Amino acid sequence: MYGGGNTFEAQQMGGVENEDPIKLAEFEARIARGEKIEPNDWMPALYRKQLIRMIEQHAHSEIIGALPEGTWITRAPGFKRKLALMAKVQDEVGHAQLLYSAAETLGKPREKMIDDLLSGKSKYSNIFNYPTFTWADSCFISWLVDAGAIVNQLANSKGSYGPYCRALERICAEESFHLKYGHHCVIHMATGTPRQRKMMQEALNRWWGPMMHFFGPPDKASVHTEILVKWKVKMATNDECRQQFLDMYVPKIWELGLNIPDPNLKKNPETGEWEYTEPDWEEFKRVINGDGPCNAERLAVRRVAEERGAWVRKALLKPEAAYTTPLA
Ligand code: BYC
């Protein structure tokens, strides 16, 4: 079971005891009325910190998420799949740009966010720390990881912080194309030759556990959900998103004749809730804290990209310096 290992960090964020109670009440009343909070509006320090944490992690997830699929562009089967995957990966990097901009409105400079990613201080989604051994792994991400992302982000796009919601609306519109592309890829594999079906089944077996982790720890162990739901940053809890994902996608996976690697997975007819084997939450903790199969590789690739792009940023910020600096 996930033991809330980040409670210390959550406590470090402080509470709202030091806030002006009148301003706090007015802020919460605005949220209750469904108004959007904008960058120059008054907000409690904790709301700001929580948003920066969550949006920044989300931005990092998009930029790192481009890597496991990106390596498949040259190996995607056929020209059309290559084109589509290239466009998808480009979109994901664009999502990171939108999200870094949204987080910047809260006062944290983009350079600091990138530094925190590269130093391992900031988290990003667990799921991108697993290897994509075959084309079927890339198909799994494009369909089911994007499906999970849409469940979470469509809910949160109705949330309280204007810049984040507007970024999420745009992201979801693009993700819905990725989802259709990914579904098409999986249908092709699942209805293809015995070898293709086997590849797809093996990918499902590899990714099911990380996919269950993707929505975050169970609500009872989640550190941040309570305050984020109260302030309408999260419009659905981790368990609600996981349940919605299972509701929407388990039937579609079964329809394709694929087996979900969980003998206990079933919908309880009385509660309407999906029952499942708890994924390994110890593995989740290790992966999100930097010790997954590909964490080191993912950050190493980003560090190289950062180094190689340094001269471009320098040229944009100080064009005169670029002419005098020899290219490495
Ligand atoms: N991975 O209190 P909790 C994409 C951390 S990109 C890693 O429940 P919260 C795509 C959590 O941060 C989409 N860490 O947290 C891209 C916290 O640690 P800290 C990614 C996780 O924030 C390219 C601790 O565990 N989506 O789809 O209330 C190609 C306790 O958790 C994860 C987003 O980023 C995780 N899965 O809820 C294809 C959506 N889960 O900060 C596709 C935005 C939890 O205390 N984020 N942790 O050290 C969210 O909605 C929420 O942050 C979460 C977690 C639901 C993920």
Automatic annotation (TrEMBL):
Enzyme class: oxidoreductase
Keywords associated with the record: Oxidoreductase
Top-level taxon in the UniProt lineage: Bacteria
Pfam families cross-referenced by the UniProt entry: PaaA_PaaC
Coiled coil ranges: none
Gene3D superfamilies tied to this protein: 1.20.1260.10
Name the record gives this protein: 1,2-phenylacetyl-CoA epoxidase subunit A
Gene that encodes the chain: paaA
